[in-house]
Amino acid sequence: MSFSRSEHDTKLYCLVTRPGNTTDVWATASQTVNVEYPPSTAVTHTTPWKPTEGSSVTLTCDVTDGNPRGNIKQMTWRKGDTMLPTSIRYTLSDKGKFLRISTLYHTLDDGLYSCAAQNDAGMGDFSANFHLLVNCK
Predict the structure, then answer these.
(1) Domain ranges of the chain
(2) Are 115 and 38 in contact (CB under 8 A)?
(3) CA dist., res. 77 & res. 15, Å (int)
(4) Is the whole-model pTM more than 0.85?
(5) Which residues on neighbouring strands pair with residue 62, listed in sequence order?
(6) Is domain 37-132 in CATH 2.60.40.1120, yes or no?
(7) Do the strands 82-83 and 57-67 form a parallel or antiparallel pair, or are they unpaired?
(8) pLDDT of the chain along its 137 residues, tens only?
(9) Which of 34, 63, 127, 129 is 20 to 30 A from 97 via CA?
(10) What angle (nearest 5°) sits at the alpha carbon of residue 64, between those of residues 50 and 112?
């Protein structure tokens, strides 16, 4: 049998009956379906908004779904289609949950940021986007 993500935590029942007599149940059994699937994420900001050039901002990658829950191996960030490496300007903490961008520049840092999380079932997708707009001084 194969189950989808939407069938997670569904209870299956099995009834054993006598041939020709479906009302006389000999035995019953039940099992809860445990479907493992990669996490989904959302990106939010944790610092005061409307950042200006020269300031810093922290983005947060929140896990909104996934099974097994609470078993996040790593989180990965990207800007547009480019993976963000850690550097002096881009620092990660708490297994990548937080991305801090230091010394913001309008021309370098404006854009769509996304994150993905990985659990035992695999890496989620980068579907959650956050548009960072850096205001000029």
Answers:
(1) 1-35, 37-132
(2) no
(3) 49
(4) no
(5) 42
(6) no
(7) unpaired
(8) 676 666 776 787 777 777 777 666 666 787 887 788 899 898 988 766 778 888 889 999 999 888 887 788 889 999 999 998 888 899 999 989 999 999 888 888 888 999 999 999 999 988 778 888 787 77
(9) 34
(10) 35
